[in-house]
Amino acid sequence: MSSSKEKGPLGSESSQENVMVEESRDAVFGEITEDGPNYRAVGWKGTAVLMMKTQIGLGVLSIPIAFDALGVIPGIICLIAIAAITTWSDYIIGVFKLRHREVYNIDDVGELLLGRPGRILFGAAFCLWWIFVAGSGMLGISIGLNAVSSHATCTAVFVAVAAVIAFLFASIQTLGRISWLAWVGLFAILTSSMFPPLAASPGACPFTKAILNPNFLLFLTVMIVTVAVGIQDRPSAAPKDAVWVSDYKLFAHSSFYQAISAISTLVFAFAGTPAFFSIASEMREPEHYNRALIVCQSVVTGFYIAVGVVIYYFCGSYVSSPALGSAGPIVKKVSYGFALPGLIVSTLLFVHIVGKYIFVRLLKGSRHLTANTLTHWITWLACTFSVTLIAYIIASSIPVFGDLVSLVGALLGTPMCFQPMGGMWLYDNWSKGKTHRTTRWKWMVCWSIFVIVAGFFLMVAGTYGSVLSIVNSYRTNGGTSAWTCANNS
């Protein structure tokens, strides 16, 4: 009788060993061993949390301002249109990743589409995008710290504090571990504890984890402001010496640059798309990607519409930017107290994603990528520190939240969320039209081309509008100096 090792390939021990070897080797990270971090450890629920953290954050704080420029009805239509396009783009990322396992980030897509120049172009745009977003996050944190402390110290100090916190937490090695930070409470954030005994313990009840979730805290924060602006006498910026009636508009009559800047702000709110490449690469089961995507985009879109409509309806043109300051000084303190954990987690995630991208590019193909060697740690910390430093400089030198969000959304958000995904579909499906051009194929070709053209239009027009808005703001208000000590809350 032959031994089990000599049996057919499906039932043999050698076959099982081969499967284990294959599973321990990743197309991006190489061989994954017990000697180093496991980069393939994120479940679909953790994936949904990470997706939402790249979406819900800074963008939601500017949606009421965008509605003021567009009007309620055009604002909702534009928001839903951008949600639909970015959801399709997110879906294409999952499909493309399953077909091309070696793709880790958008620069890999650039090389497939345009060769080496495409890799350089897309890679540079990706890094700039997330560094600018991280800078916006640090600026948002400084606004929150100013609000809760009644401007206890110079704003430049608060920006530096935000940078230090972002660096410390972003230097956690894997997204699998960072996803647990979505269950870390306010206490854990304030004490800089990476492994909270309450929220992360196996015995913690689901309700405790839910209420300590920074996503929930940020959701609760915005809902506090949303309710407060409805029950208060008037928004904090409104005149105090007259009867207050909201001046909200169903259809606004804004100039072109104001409208296109508002649309760029909405793009920014949904522009977590480029991070989905990295998140999908660290999923334990990439086949469950769409499940996480549906949860993410459904929650995000509904949340954005509710917040944008309600806050703008009650505040009208006197809505603040960020929107958390619309309900008066007391509510502002409370709301920013709840929001800070969510803003911090979002910012550290942005820093981590860029740092991880540079880190993988530097050490790909080397044993140092997945082994806890001295080279591994020096390279990793150097990457996260460099990204944090550049983001800090941006946050300190362009301390205007609304204009910065609009500019980043137009200049870097659209080329990260629109054009590449249209090209990805054409790359995988164009050849099918040479043999059999179905009606569906023709429609998808038209749709992909539309997404590409729309992306270029929004990038050029939105950048023009945002720059013009910044120039007009400086002419009107005199601008805000770099590394300012002035209260930005």
TrEMBL record:
It comes from the Eukaryota. It is a multi-pass membrane protein. Keywords: Membrane, Transmembrane, Transmembrane helix. The keyword Ribosomal protein does not apply. Residues 43-467 form the Amino acid transporter transmembrane domain. InterPro entries: AA_transpt_TM. It is found in: Membrane. One of its GO terms (molecular function) is L-amino acid transmembrane transporter activity. Residues 1-21 are annotated as: Disordered. GO terms for cellular component: membrane. The chain crosses the membrane at residues 60-85, 120-145, 152-172, 178-199, 211-231, 256-280, 292-314, 334-354, 374-395, 407-427, 447-471. The keyword Transmembrane helix applies. Belongs to the amino acid/polyamine transporter 2 family. This is Amino acid transporter transmembrane domain-containing protein. It comes from Penicillium diatomitis.
